[in-house]
Amino acid sequence: MKKTVPLILGMVFGAYALAEFYLPHHAVAGLSDELRSWAAILSAAAFILGGLNILQVTWPKIRRREDDWGYKVVLLGGAAVMLAVGLPWHKLGDPPRAPTVARTAGGAGPGATVIVTVPDDVTYTVGTVVGPGTGAPIAIAVEPGPVAIKLSKRLAGYRPLTTTVDVAAGDTVTVGGEPPILWGRDGRVFTWIYDHVFGPANATMFSLLAFFVASAAFRAFRARSIEAALLLTAAIIMLIGRAPFGGAISSVFPDLAQWLLDVPQNGGRRAIMMGAAIGAIATGLRVIVGIERSHLGSE
Amino acid sequence: MSARLVVALVVALVGAQVGAAAAQPGAGSAVVVPIDELSPLGPPPAQPAPPAPPAPAPAAAPILAGVTDVQVVAPANDDGRHLDVSFTRAADVAAEVATVIVRRRHGTPGAPPRYPPLVADGAWAPSFAGPTPPPLAALAAGVTIGPWTVAAVLVGGETSFTDQVAPGHDYEYVVAEVLLDHGVPVAASAAEAIGPRRPEAALVHTGRLGYLAIVALIASLIAWYVRRARTAKDLYIRSLPGVEAIEDAVGRSTEMGRPVLYVTGLEDIQNIQTIASLLVLGHVAEKTATYDTDLTVANYYPLTMVVAEEVVRQGYANAGRPDAHRPERCLFITAEQFAFAAGVSGIILRDRPATNIYLGCFYGESLLLAETGFVTGAVQIAGTAELTQLPFFITACDYTLIGEELYAASAYLTKEPTLLANLKAADAFKIVAMVFIVVSVIAATGGWFDLGGKVFP
Predict the structure, then answer these.
(1) In this complex, do B422 and A286 lie within 8 Å of one another by their Cβ atoms?
(2) B171 plus B274 within the same structural domain
(3) Whole-model pTM?
(4) Does residue B209 lie within any of the structural domains?
(5) B contact test, residue of A294, A296, A298 with most B CBs within 10 A
(6) Do residue B277 and residue B198 come from a single domain?
(7) Given CB atoms, is A26 within the 8 Å cutoff of chain B?
(8) CB–CB contact A54 B332 (8 Å)
(9) Are residues B239 and B177 both part of a single domain?
(10) What Å distances lie between residue B443 and A38, B104, B182, B448, CA to CA?
């Protein structure tokens, strides 16, 4: 029973997933969407387990002051900070959504004026006029009628203030305000940490790849066997053929490099792809039909 | 030529044709309508011909001639949510003329083949508009005009469109040419109507039967070899050195008193490479449990971690040592690629595992992991079907399972005849595929027939 139920479930859903590819009917697609939603819910719930796992693994190491326990503190601290700033705290309060607007009627002239007073890190949009704030009042002439006004920070993570003011001829409208900070995934702090801490750290790891490629290539290109010698020869031809000076020496090098890519490399690549595809089909089938049961354990 | 000039020219040209169109209503499809002269439902009234333009080009006459030969059909192998609309435009339609396709549900059989123009007198024609029509400038796909919905506004000269509709309903379509002035319709041709048409859901995707044949053939071969394996005494399987090295590597870890590190790749549980990796993990866990060696499993996704933990638990149970299982050694690292690489590299450098096994789907971090493992002197066994990462693994690891070998590893480790039969079936199918390729190449090169194109349309 312990094995049978998971086996039957695996067979049913596996067979359905296989059949779905050949059944274009919308009813099938609807059921598939439903199953995918379940999978997404499961996947999201698993992230909670993942967080608990991190806590379960790192906290005892911190408590026992094991080697490099300081890194664990950074890990948990970083996770706690990102969790804290990733929550949409701004929804708890009622931050402004529109700028402050004061209207003075009765001026002369056919037009109207909008006076914007915003800090220098705020960009104002009055009708079709866009400009940076200076901290001082800025007068903008507008036509009578509805005028769309928007105040936004040039940095990400703030909520723009928007409103539409119906101005009459001779009106003077004074506009002010500062876009409030947002929290959560699109919030200022989250975005700042992502851009200024995670992004550079990620790029650093990626850039290390260049050095690892160099050291790995150095090892691989030592001609200690016939296969390694072939690899070395192909690599040299590719290096010369792809570098500008290769073509300057002789057009044979670029042509030879291209031939290596198009013929031997492509042939081998396709062979691996086809083998992998056949292996994937065979693996899928043996799991679906229940031949492969090692993941279910013994009775 | 500016758009306004074009509008003026078209209105003038259209006006010249109204008289003829009124005299012969329904003759031909060139009922052209200036916005000021349209009648909502009936044929346009006869008007005195305006003065001819200075130099009317003969080809400019059918600018708002409307479309012809409108067809609405359900696409082949469809899921029942689409209808293909196609039509023919006049040869010399101005660039400012767009084709507007509108539809409504429950078209009436026998509906008139042609409606009055969509736009009349600077507004939507009453037969389309309904009580609260949107402004003309709102013309865009998805906008509702009375009972009609704009399916598409084709501005690039397209003559076909695949419309997405709700299944199980009849739809009536109207297609018309509309002259746009800065996106605002100012004149329209007569509207060609067609319908009702109902989308049709195919039961089987006939274009994919070739792939189904492959699966069926492999399944048949598996069944045949499984039956044969039950009677045959021994089933020869080519050796897989990378798989055979797993037991030796675990033994080495035991001798050195250092753990085994297992990385399940960077894809989620539904990826077949991850599944293959988890199948092998069960065997590795059984081996480490038998040898009483620590096993650390690093996972990219939490769901993979949950399954991996269960697989390891089962492996320890299979070895008769469920008490030795330590769930905290199945780690969720992170779901960010290079943060994962940094985390696993940290484990490699701190714990110094004697064996690193990387099986599953890997990307750019593969060399970071393998080179770090190389620095620590660990025995490294890798396997992936990702072509771009194979050279990195081959360079930096002691053994590499290439493509299909990753999928074969689990069956190879069990040595069970039924599972080995699966490998035999895959090998047999490769022979079939090779024969197919050779025959197809010869046939196509000789110009006799395109076998590949027929099987995989």
Answers:
(1) yes
(2) no
(3) 0.79
(4) no
(5) A294
(6) no
(7) yes
(8) yes
(9) no
(10) 48, 50, 56, 5
